[in-house]
Design a protein that fits this description.
The chain is α+β, with helices and mostly antiparallel strands. It is built from four helices and four strands, in the order H-H-E-H-H-E-E-E. The protein has a four-stranded antiparallel β-sheet with strand order 1-2-3-4, sandwiched between helices.
Length: 140
């Protein structure tokens, strides 16, 4: 993938959509650029449980992978980006549906993007692909 024209939200969205091999390529490409930081995680479970724990999981992932520093402004931005992205994915999902979501978190130091791609299913034969991305400005 060519990231010569880098955009935080685009990188997050592409990273969330990747398979294992593509994920490695994106991480290698971004490793050479000190301005961008990327973390990827998977969140899965029953919809109601995912909704309860999603933001905490994303904050933890962002902190553990040095995507953000532990400050109220940075945490605030992650909370909003995570909630907005999650809302885009689960707004019409029944509470007892199963979710498996790949989440990419990207920062360029000024902005943070949270992108989600995955499946939801109320019944095993009714999987739906879902995707969403949100960005917030990182406050100092």
């Amino acid at each position: 993938m060519d990231f010569s024209f880098k955009r935080t939200g685009k990188i997050a969205t592409l990273a969330a959509l990747t398979d294992e091999e593509e994920e490695k390529k994106i991480k290698q490409e971004l490793a050479s650029d000190p301005h961008y930081r990327l973390a990827i995680t998977v969140v899965s479970g029953i919809s109601s449980e995912v909704k309860q724990n999603f933001v905490k999981s994303i904050i933890g992932c962002a902190l553990q992978n040095n995507i953000i520093v532990k400050s109220s402004g940075n945490i605030h931005a992650v909370v909003h980006a995570a909630l907005d992205a999650l809302n885009g994915v689960v707004h019409q999902v029944p509470a007892d549906s199963s979710l498996k979501l790949k989440v990419a978190i990207v920062s360029d130091g000024k902005w943070i993007a949270v992108a989600i791609y995955g499946d939801s299913a109320f019944y095993p034969m009714t999987n739906h692909e879902r995707s969403s991305m949100s960005m917030m400005h990182l406050a100092d």
